[in-house]
């Protein structure tokens, strides 16, 4: 994989927990099973003779296309989770994600206002959490999902301390 364009040289990336795949699979199942079921209603109504429109070919095509797209996204989930990484440097935190559209975000410690740890029900059951970084910029969407709870707590404390130290130096 060629990531030289977005990866700074000499950075040792840490990965999120492989258990995060389960969280993503649950999210996938909830969203896609519901969506395919809703899009299949016209097909059921046409087959039962309750509706004359849409034509049968269209009533079959729409949920079938959605199902194929959902299965494609399902196959990508493990690779997407493996693509999430982070690295602590002296002055900033790097967050990397993406397979096709790769992104590396740099969050300077001095810009952090507070660090939040969030835990959903599936994450809690797996001992995981999501670290959210809040900066002075409202447009910053820096978050790091799939961290083991102890690592999330450690990072929250360490990043908060580094942020306070950098702010005090201003």
Task: Write structural notes for this entry.
It is a single chain. With 170 residues, this protein is α+β, with helices and mostly antiparallel strands. The chain has 2 domains: 20-81; 85-168, Roll (PH-domain like), CATH 2.30.29. The chain contains 4 helices and 7 strands; from the N terminus they run βααββββαββα. The chain has helices at 20-47, 56-82, 121-126, 149-168; strands at 14-15, 85-88, 92-97, 103-108, 112-118, 128-135, 142-148. A 4-stranded antiparallel β-sheet has the order 1-2-3-4. The protein has a 3-stranded antiparallel β-sheet with strand order 5-6-7. Helix 1 runs antiparallel to helix 2 (56-82). The longest helix has 28 residues, at 20-47. It is elongated. The mean pLDDT is 92.
The shape is: elongated
Q: Helix- and strand-based class?
A: alpha+beta
Series of secondary-structure elements, N-terminal to C-terminal: EHHEEEEHEEH
Sheet of most strands? 4 strands, antiparallel
What's the CATH topology name of the largest domain? PH-domain like
Chain-averaged pLDDT: 92
Assign the CATH architecture of the largest domain: Roll
Q: How many distinct folded domains?
A: 2
State the end-to-end distance: 39 Å
Low-pLDDT regions: none
Number of strands: 7
Strand content: 15-25%
Helix percentage: 40-55%
Highest CATH level, the class of the largest domain: Mainly Beta
- How do the strands of the widest beta sheet line up side by side? 1-2-3-4
Give the helix tally.
4
Rg result: 21 Å
């Amino acid at each position: 994989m060629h990531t030289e364009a977005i990866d700074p040289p000499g950075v040792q990336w840490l990965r999120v927990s492989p258990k995060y795949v389960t969280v993503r699979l649950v999210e996938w199942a909830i969203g896609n099973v519901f969506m395919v079921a809703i899009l299949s209603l016209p097909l059921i109504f046409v087959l039962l003779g309750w509706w004359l429109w849409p034509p049968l070919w269209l009533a079959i095509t729409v949920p079938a296309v959605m199902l194929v797209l959902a299965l494609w996204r399902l196959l990508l989930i493990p690779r997407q989770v493996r693509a999430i990484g982070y690295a602590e440097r002296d002055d900033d935190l790097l967050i990397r994600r993406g397979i096709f559209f790769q992104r590396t975000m740099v969050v300077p410690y001095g810009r952090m206002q507070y660090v939040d740890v969030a835990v959903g029900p599936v994450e809690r059951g797996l001992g995981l959490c999501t670290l959210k970084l809040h900066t002075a910029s409202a447009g910053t969407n820096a978050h790091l999902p799939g961290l083991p709870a102890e690592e999330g707590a450690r990072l929250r404390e360490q990043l908060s301390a580094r942020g306070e130290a950098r702010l005090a130096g201003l």
